[in-house]
Design a protein that fits this description.
- This protein is mainly beta and 61 residues long.
- It has a domain of 35 residues.
- The chain has no helices and 6 strands.
- It has a 3-stranded antiparallel β-sheet, with no helix packed on it.
- A hairpin with a 2-residue loop joins strand 3 and strand 4.
Amino acid sequence: MPAYLIRHAKGQQGDMLIEDDNLTLDIRRGWAILADNQGIVAALPAEHIACITRIDESPDQ
């Protein structure tokens, strides 16, 4: 299952882990937009994000 760990920039609180079977990440116009087959799950302004890391399950899990 695709998952993304979103680490917020300094001064922002709480990292986020978002996971969904159909999760996609699109970066456009200064926004990180995570969506699934039902629509937008989260939209975050890029200046609030330190990094986004995709985390995939290992094949044996």
